[in-house]
Amino acid sequence: MNLKQVKDKLRCINGMGFVESMRNGNTGVGYTLETLLGIEENNDAAADIEGNIELKAKRKVGSSRVTSFCQSPIWHVKTRDVIKKYGLDAEERINFFPSLRCTGSNPQGLSLKIDGECLFLVGKEGETLAELPIGVLVFRFRQKYKELILVHAERVKQRGKREKFWFNEAYHCSKLSTSKVVTLLEEGKIVIEPRIWMNKETEKLRDRGMAVRLSEKWTKELFLNVEKII
């Protein structure tokens, strides 16, 4: 299915009004839209349309962040030392799972700062703990979203029945931009969350990298070109 066909089908689906979800749970909105479009469900990393256009559907209610990807930073301070100073006790281990933004410090005094072409993780005393090159973040976003069709759905909850969706807003987004990524970081819309813990007895680390998270309602702001389809 090509882009023009998808746009035409989305306009037809919009004209259907509310349709009952074809699956229970959070994935119902995406599955229902894919089924109406005639796109076979898949769980691999391949794009849904023309090999390079990702399709995303979301409910208009709610604004929870989703993990776009995880990326290991360049540490300036030994990770164990960072965890010992800024981690939180959790019985047999120390957790280091802060939510970090460029707009201010978290309760432990940690913050993010953009300087030149890098994003820095800064401690409460102004010390640089780690860095992530902006170019790496932009590259990872481009890997995930070469192009994007983002569809929003009104929903109606039905007692004892599946919810209903009206797919009545859609955008075609292209040309993901470095400047847009920087702006979203500066505005605190992109959140960085390290995911590391350390065993207290052995000091063994479990490091899942830094999760880069963004609410889906802000996703289209990553792109220079945003065309409204419906």
Can you tell me about this structure?
The chain is of the alpha+beta class and 230 residues long. The protein has helices at 3-15, 28-37, 79-86, 134-144, 178-186; strands spanning 19-20, 53-59, 65-71, 74-75, 88-90, 93-96, 111-115, 118-122, 128-133, 147-156, 164-176, 190-199, 205-215, 223-228. Strands 1, 2, 10, 11 and 14 form a five-stranded mixed sheet that branches. A five-stranded antiparallel sheet has the order 3-13-12-6-5. It is elongated, with a radius of gyration of 20 Å.
Secondary structure: elements and pairs:
Elements: H1 3-15, E1 19-20, H2 28-37, E2 53-59, E3 65-71, E4 74-75, H3 79-86, E5 88-90, E6 93-96, E7 111-115, E8 118-122, E9 128-133, H4 134-144, E10 147-156, E11 164-176, H5 178-186, E12 190-199, E13 205-215, E14 223-228
Parallel strand pairs: 2-10
Antiparallel strand pairs: 1-11, 3-13, 4-9, 5-6, 6-12, 7-8, 8-9, 10-11, 11-14, 12-13
* Domain module tally: 2
Number of E-type strands: 14
Average pLDDT metric? 92
Q: What shape does the CA trace take?
A: elongated
Key traits:
230 residues; alpha+beta; PvuII Endonuclease, Chain A; Alpha-Beta Plaits; 2 domains; five-stranded mixed sheet; five-stranded antiparallel sheet; 5 helices; 14 strands; 22% helix
Briefly characterize the structure.
22% of the residues lie in helices and 40% in strands. The protein is α+β, with helices and mostly antiparallel strands and 230 residues long. It has 2 domains: 3-64 and 145-175 and 217-228, MvaI/BcnI restriction endonuclease, catalytic domain (PvuII Endonuclease, Chain A, 3-Layer(aba) Sandwich); 67-137 and 180-215, Alpha-Beta Plaits (2-Layer Sandwich), CATH 3.30.70.3570.
